[in-house]
Amino acid sequence: MLKLNKSHVLWKGGTTNKAQFVKVLQSAIAAIMKSSPKRVSIEAMAETARQLGIQVDEDNKECQTPNTYAKEITAQIKDVAKYKREKLRLQGETWRNLAEVEKELCRMRKQGDTPLEKYKSQLKKKLMDLHAQQNKHDLTDGLITFITGIRLLPPMEKHYFLKWMKFGLDHITRENLSKLWDQYKEKCKNSKDDPKMFAELDKLISASSLGVQHFMCELGQFYEAECSMVKEGKMAESQRQFTHLPGIAADLMLEGFPMEIIDGDVSNISLQWVTDVLSQLHAKLGGRSKILFAVSSGRCTRGAFTLLIKVAENFQQELGCDFILVIDTEGLKAPELAKLEDSYQHDNELATLVIGLSDITILNMAMENATGMKDVLQIVVHAFLRMEKIGKKTNSQFVHQNVSDVSAHEQNMRDRKHLLEQLNEMTKAAANMEKKCKEMNFSDIMDYDLEKHNWYIPALWHGVPPVAPVNLGYSQKVYELKKYLFEFLKDCSQERTPNDIPLFLAWVRSLL
Q1: How far apart are the first and last CA of the chain?
Q2: How large is the greatest C-alpha to C-alpha distance in the chain, in angstroms?
């Protein structure tokens, strides 16, 4: 049926050079693409596969309904920024204004000559007005479909639904961002240096990311606004529509999906929403929620996400906890966000909160960008110093990525000493800024050992993919780091009782 002949088969002998074979393969693929009258999508190829009698995974019944729900939502999205303005209406400027008022209520930086109680009253009224404005909106069709998907679908179909959502939203986001970057490059070539124009483009690029977290954030804002109305006596408890939402989000966490605790777009926490979701989680676990906290980085979004990892029952007693809660951030000094006016403040707030909540902090050190890493370390040192103020001394691990040799730890003693010297200098400077009387070193504000707390992880590949073999040293070093982290967590649980969810929430409030 395929009508294959010898010209359609490429064969690699034992003596054939791999690089030459890859070139032959690339040439063959290029020739096929040129001769084809049009490009074919993967979905169109699935139809051909069916005709050939090849099984297509997506034809599975459990996959079909979730796919229909996901397409119903994503089919409405053409322009991401426009969709967020029109369909995710509780976010955007309203959410940004709410965040600013909430932060000002805590900091009182713009009080001026206004009496304290009067100023607080003014801020609370602004807050109430913004929540009332949010509460007037109805759920859009897309949000109703989204709630149906995460609430009513069976667990396996729910997983498929969220995966389809992610694939669809990622595809749309890439297309939008590609057009914006092309526009940005064109402006750079043909326009004079206009800071205002480029600032607007930077904001548009930042606003053009869209993921499942934005839909969850919108539900959180509906819930927050409703809670505010009830608290102020402007709505009866019996009129509430969204009381079931925290339970749905808690179920998602139990099933392994991450939850955003810090909204990256406005650098703020929907405190009532996060509190009630985690309280529901605590209740669903029957009050058994002893948790150890780790924080790392790696996402491309601006916020911080929590991921609940269940500890195997036969390991719970040894580790002293039921779950490990990973707090995952996009990292500090993200280049795509550096030009935004709130970038520096965002990084400081993010570092202080996630380090303050964690038992152990993992810092990814990209040594190819030494200047950028120095900026990151300055922010981190300030965050650790703030923890010292409240009597918390956390552990941190420095992971040096993509080193050239598995024996790098032995060969880089000088570099580690230089890193410690930099950290000590930054600590002294930070202590002076915080008006600390005594002279401080880095080891005074955190648990740090020059030998034990630095890890050198080689690159995953030997050479350049696709012909490069896997580097076995990568797995070995990652395993050693993982083993150390578990040993540390065991020691940590023996020294003190791990936190449960209510204590975690108390920490969140103390840091805000």
Answers
A1: 66
A2: 88
Q: What is the pLDDT of residues 344-396, one digit of tens each?
A: 667 777 777 778 778 888 888 765 555 556 677 777 787 777 777 767 777 88
User: pLDDT tens-digit profile of 30-49?
Assistant: 887 777 666 677 777 888 88
Domain ranges of the chain: 291-512
Tell me which residue of 224, 108, 90, 330 sits closest to 100, measured CA to CA.
108
3-state secondary structure 144-195: HHHHHHHHHCCHHHHHHHHHHHHHHHHHHHHHHHHHHHHHHHHHHHHCCCCH
Hey, is 101 helix, strand or coil? helix
Cβ-count burial of 409 within 10 angstroms (0-12 exposed, 13-18 middle, 19+ buried)? middle
Q: 323-329 and 291-297: which strand pairing?
A: parallel
- Checking 186-192 for CB contacts under 8 A at 24+ apart, the result is none
Q: For 291-512, CATH number?
A: 3.40.50
| pTM greater than 0.85 | no
Secondary structure element (H or E) that encloses residue 381, with its range: helix 370-389
CA-nearest of 142, 155, 153 to 216 is 142
